[in-house]
Amino acid sequence: MRLDVLLHELRLFKSRSQAAAAIDEGRIMVAGRFAKASRAIAAGERITIVGPRGARTLEVLDLPRRSMSKAAAQALVREVEPRES
Predict the structure, then answer these.
(1) What is the domain extent for residue 27?
(2) 22 lies in a domain?
(3) What CATH number did the domain enclosing 42 receive?
(4) Is the whole-model pTM more than 0.70?
(5) Average pLDDT over every residue of 35-58
(6) In the chain, fewer beta carbons within 10 Å around the N or the C end?
(7) Are the beta carbons of 28 and 47 closer than 8 angstroms?
(8) Cβ pair 41, 27 in contact under 8 A
(9) Is residue 33 situated within a structural domain?
(10) What is the pLDDT of residue 81?
(11) Burial annotation 20-48 (CB, 10 A radius, 16+ → b, else e)
(12) How confident is the model at residue 26 (pLDDT cuts 50, 70, 90)?
């Protein structure tokens, strides 16, 4: 599944175009690297979203199969604690 579609389907952005804009602005990383909107995402990958309140890293547990509720979408990702240095 494309990164921009996944971010929208997981309800992390209100629209696919907002997700694509965040990717283009360099606010989204996959596995620690900046990614394009068309990058394919698989279960188990980690996505970092940088926003005004800081960065958060999420692990994709499974991909959405169809349109779903916000609660069901939130069950497909897990917040990953930042690693201590």
Answers:
(1) 3-80
(2) yes
(3) 3.10.290.10
(4) yes
(5) 94
(6) C
(7) yes
(8) no
(9) yes
(10) 75
(11) bebbeeebbbbeeeebebebebeeebebb
(12) very high
